[in-house]
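Hi there, hope your week has been kind to you so far. For a while now I've been wondering how a particular protein folds. I'm sending you its amino acid sequence along with the C-alpha cells. Could you read through the record and tell me how the C-alpha cells relate to the sequence? Take your time with it, there's no hurry, and the full record follows here.
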Amino acid sequence: MNTDITHEPQNNRFEVHTDGAVGYIEYEKSATVINYTHTVVPSELGGRGLGTELVKYALAYARVEHLKVIPSCSFVAALIDKHAVYQDLRAE
C-alpha cells in the first residue's frame, strides 16, 4: 500500500492516494496561522490510520513553516489534545 502524502497548495490541502482512492486534509492559511478545516478518509480506506498520518504530516508542515494551528477540524483537535508534542502549535 502506497501512503505517500503530497502537498497540493493550489487546492489548499494535503492528499494521500491509496488503492485508487484519495484521502485529504484541507486548510486555510495566512502568514502566521494555518487553519485545518476538514479531514476526509474514504470509507474504503478507513481503519488504516491514514487520517492520523495526514494530520501528523500537516502538523509537521505547520512546525517547519513556523505556523500556529487552528484545529477547526475535530479530528485535528483531538490529535493535538492527545499528544503533548503538538500542544505548542495550537494558536491562542
Notes: The chain has a mean pLDDT of 93. The first strand starts at residue 5 and ends at 8. The beta strands are 5-8, 13-18, 21-29, 33-40, 68-70. The radius of gyration is 13 Å.
